[in-house]
Amino acid sequence: MKEEIVSAENVTLAFDKEKNYALSGVSFSIQRGGSIAFIGESGSGKTSMLRILLGLIEPTSGRVRLFDKYLDEVDDEELREIRRACSYIPQDPFGGLPPTLTALQAVTEPLVITRLNVKKTGRERAKKLLSSLGIGETLWNRKLIQGFSGGQRQRIMLARALVTDPKLLFADEPTSMQDASTRMDLVNLIRGHHRRGMSLIFVTHDLLLAKAIAERGIVLYRGHMCETGHTAPLLKDPLHPYTMALSAALPRLGKPIEIKTKRRPLPPHWKGCPYFSLCPYASDRCHALPPLKKIGDDRSVACFLYF
Fold first, then answer.
1. 128 three-class SS
2. Which domain range does residue 122 map to?
3. Are residues 64 and 199 in the same domain?
4. How far is CA 96 from CA 85, 90, 155, 158, 161, in A?
5. Which of 230, 229, 263 is nearest to 245 (CA)?
6. Which residue positions does the secretion signal occupy (predicted)?
């Protein structure tokens, strides 16, 4: 059995004392070499989960274990050592890169930070990564402050993340500013590293992209786990009404987009199903919070339709 590289145990993050949650009771694990996608719209808690996994913010409750160490038990030096085995692609391509460095310097900088400063081979690896992502030699020595598009910056951030050959990659919407052709360049590069043993945690709102890049998925809505399982069945046969809506929103040739939702007001301090206000199947049972129920060997869904 493969070693478990990441686990989250009932992770909750509250915004305030009124218990407005960014995350509520999220649990999952990934074995070495595995991949998982967090899927959901803006505000669903995807980025908050990544930041907790990296130890950038502390959860209100619950625990995270990374490389067999609980993050709430390690000191600063141990945390830095753990992070050296990881890479992180932040969501913001404009705030995620050092503006005074050139594109090539930005990609080689992590080799210094992680103590892998092999000057010649490191620079060659950085150049190869940039070239494979469409950042040609004429742009290598241009400073980032001198004008790169959002899409170019995303590609530079991916090269910067992969130059150290990380054991674990955290990628937060790394293709959001790409067109169809360059998006596949990024996806194929990430998949290539994943096939060579890199573990992956990927954030997206797109079920098709989740299927293309990750083996398993967790659908989040307002910080709650709606559905989990392999990404192909999540796309082909969604169980939760919110996952159904995400799937229905995908464009299909010759078929109109038909999303089944209803709009109803939520009472103050709502404690029931987070999707109640939009769900076309809601009933009085949904005034309670549905637990995750296992469906088959590898599917779980939090919906009273299956109780």
1. helix
2. 96-165
3. yes
4. 19, 6, 12, 11, 11
5. 263
6. none
Secondary structure letter of residue 297 according to DSSP: T
Distance, in Å, from the CA atom of 85 to the CA atom of 115, rounded to the nearest integer, reads 11
| Residues 155, 294 within the same domain | no
CA 300 and chain centroid, separation: 19
pTM score of the predicted model: 0.92
Q: Exposed/middle/buried for 268, CB within 10 Å: 0-12, 13-18, 19+? A: exposed
Contact present, 189 and 162 (Cβ < 8 Å): yes
Q: Distance between CA 167 and CA 302 in Å, rounded?
A: 32
Residue 290 identity: P
Q: How far apart are CA 191 and CA 133, in angstroms?
A: 14
pLDDT at 102 over 90: yes
> Are residues 26 and 75 both part of a single domain?
yes
Domain count, the chain: 2
Q: Which two tokens stand for residue 87?
A: 């890479």
Report CA-CA distances (Å) from 305 to 231, 286, 297.
21, 10, 18
> At 210, which CATH number?
3.40.50.300
Answer yes or no: do 149 and 8 share one domain.
Answer: no
Q: Could you tell me if 160 and 218 lie in one domain?
A: no
pLDDT in tens, 158-189: 999 999 999 999 999 999 999 888 899 999 99
As given in the structure block, the two tokens for residue 217 are 């998925």
Query: Burial letters for 177-200: b for 16+ Cβ neighbours within 10 Å, e otherwise?
Result: bbeeebbebbbebbbebbeeebbb
Q: Is residue 52 domain-shared with residue 73, that is, in the same domain?
A: yes
H/E element, 153: helix 150-162
| Residue 207, domain member (yes or no) | yes
* pLDDT at site 117: 60
Structure letter (DSSP) for residue 88: E
